[in-house]
Amino acid sequence: MKFAFDHLVFFSNKPEDALLPLKNKGIHAVNGGRHENWGTYNSLAYFGLSYIEFLGVEVLGIAEQQDDNRLVAEIVEKLVGKKQEGPAKIAIRTNNLEELAAKFKEAGFTVYGPLPGERVRADGQVIRWSLLFPESKTSELSLPFFIQWEKSDEERLAEFEEQGLVGTHTAGNPTFTNAAFVVRDLEKTLQEWGRLVDLPVSVEFTDLALNALCKTLKLAGTELLFCTPIGEGIAQKVLQEKGETPFMVTLNGTKQEQMYEMQDAYWRFED
After folding, report:
1. What 3-state class would DSSP assign to 185?
2. Which of these, 17, 67, 244, 256, could form a disulfide with 141 (CB 3.0-4.6 Å)?
3. In 42-162, where does DSSP find H-type helix?
4. CA distance 14 to 85
5. Is pLDDT at 120 greater than 90 in this prediction?
6. How far, rounded to the nearest angstrom, does the alpha carbon of residue 134 sit from its chain's CA centroid?
7. Which residues of 31-54 are buried (b: 16+ CB within 10 A; e: fewer)?
8. Measured between alpha carbons, how far is 255 from 271 in angstroms, rounded to an integer?
9. Which of 197, 200, 42 is nearest to 134 (CA)?
10. Can you tell me the distance from the alpha carbon of 241 to that of 247, in angstroms, rounded to the nearest whole number?
11. How far is CA 256 from CA 96, 146, 172, 173, 263, in A?
12. Are 174 and 254 in contact (CB under 8 A)?
């Protein structure tokens, strides 16, 4: 079974408000569209097939009814209920959700889906996919969800290029190198995620900018960086304020070496 990073979801009160701050840093982002059946809408920034989604609630009455769509249930709980914006959850792309659902159930996860999804683009075209949500009562960190697109990777990338969604950043030619998560127990977290996706793990290293011990999960497209703080610093601050969560985006090929705070997250730009 194939696995690749698909996207990182930010919860946002107004997804459209992400466009200008990103543009000011040289990152091209666009209004996405509406998930009419879920009561949500989004803005998007693409880095090849890996992308960042800024997701907001458009019709609360519809969103509140989406118990099986755990992403929408989570945005209602965290964004509407707790007023917590910022990076929240990642999606992993795969090619057989039915088989994956059976595997997760056998491993003891609570499983929601596969669930059909669609988004109406601004030009009226409907984009379709399916979603699968594994959950565990032992995990504080929101587990990834899994997505299977109706179209192939090649078809989707060709459409992105045609629409000017890729290759249009002014901050160099950035790639989405990794999405970072802060956790309390590095080994416990990697064991839990290892039950979902069997992927290579890097050796442990110290990230001085974060003051944290980290390991990287080698996922195709965009890697996953897990960090636990070893003292005062960015990682400890996020853990104290938000608990275990995604908290940082690393972009490579930006022609600069900078750390920014944008959209309730850290953004590390690397040359």
Report:
1. coil
2. 244
3. 60-63, 70-75, 97-106, 153-162
4. 10
5. no
6. 15
7. bbbbbeebbbbbbbbbbbbbbbbb
8. 4
9. 197
10. 11
11. 39, 33, 9, 11, 20
12. yes
Best CA proximity match to 113, nearest among 128, 135, 89, 136: 135
**Alpha-carbon separation of residue 247 from 9, 133, 150, 187, 265 (angstroms):** 11, 21, 30, 19, 5
Q: What is the pLDDT of residue 61?
A: 97
| % of the chain residues with pLDDT over 70 | 100
The per-residue pLDDT for 227 is 98
| DSSP 3-state of 158 | helix
Q: Which amino acid is located at 216 in the chain?
A: T
Q: Helices (H) and strands (E) in the chain — how many of each?
A: 7, 15
- Residue at 174: amino acid letter: P
pLDDT score at 4: 97
Whether 241 and 235 have beta carbons less than 8 Å apart is answered as no
- Residue 232's pLDDT band, with cuts at 50, 70 and 90, is very high
